[in-house]
Amino acid sequence: MVSWHLRLVSLTVGLSLFPSVALRGARPVHRRDLSFLAPFAASGKQRTRTLHPRTVELQPRPLFFSLGRAPFSVTRVGSQAQELEMAQPVVIFVLGGPGAGKGTQCGFLEEHFGFKHISAGDCLREERANEGSEFGELIDNFIKEGKIVPVEITVKLLKKKMEAFGWEGGRFLIDGFPRNKDNLDGWASLMGDICDDKFCLFFDCAEDVMETRLLERGKDSGRTDDNVESIRKRFRTYQTETMPIIQHFESLDKLRKIDANPPKDTVWTAVKALFVKEEFKPQETLPV
User: Which residues have CB under 8 Å from 265's CB, separation 6+?
Assistant: First the structure.
């Protein structure tokens, strides 16, 4: 009789420990019905029954536990991957020739759709102006020659700015990047797996229109590259290095083209319609 009582206690305790198996993905294990043992316990007979271990089949499903309150689920690897994807910042590249109006339109998008505008050129100029920068002189030489700064420097500065704004769930307009194949490959290598690159917004504008805008801007901007010589060097670089990147995005069906020749308000109307079509919602509260 004592032996059966010990067996009952041992079996009950053992089963109560099985929920730890469920934590590894098994189906919930419930306390077994032991009523079939009652006749033997009542008669006082000594019998031996062999209990064989059961094979537990792991099921790839959400698990539910109760801690005295409503059940809650444990997220599995698939859901974690989905959450990680949702946390990735959204990136839209913004390209166009010098003076196409990229910065102006990015300002409107920032105001109306809640994007954060990051100008690759501004990041480089800020770094150049930083007296303690190890890259300042190098950047200065590249900008004066109208050449493209090495991608490792540019991507490092872009990522730093994105993190300052808030990485997870952020929405960014990367203005003036990628400007050549080296930029494109460098971004894919360093940032491609951690950002959600949506498309490239391309502002298509004639060179004579852009030159007029840049010379007018140069009167007040104080920028060393807003002069005729630097402007035309930049046009040549744009045609030889950036246009192939624009064509690359077009081949992937990831190019959104805007006519940037009209006045800025007309261009903005087209840009706003495009972003609504791409299912970006305007901010709830807009300035008057």
Answer: none
Please give the Cα distance from 166 to 169 (Å, whole number): 8
Residue pair 133/124 in contact (Cβ under 8 Å)? The answer is no
Binding site feature residues: 99-104, 125, 147-149, 176-179, 183, 217, 223, 234, 262
- What pTM, to 2 d.p., does this model score? 0.68
Prior bond of 244 cis (ω within 30°): no
Helices 120-129, 151-165: crossing angle, 10 deg rounding:
100
**Which two tokens mark 80?**
């974690």
Q: Pick 248 or 67 by higher pLDDT.
A: 248
For the chain, give every domain's residue range: 2-74, 88-277
Give 163-209 as a 3 state SS string. HHHCCCCCEEEEECCCCCHHHHHHHHHHCCCCCEEEEEEEEECCHHH
What CATH code is assigned to 88-277? 3.40.50.300
Binding site, annotated residues for a ribonucleoside 5'-phosphate: 125, 147-149, 176-179, 223, 234
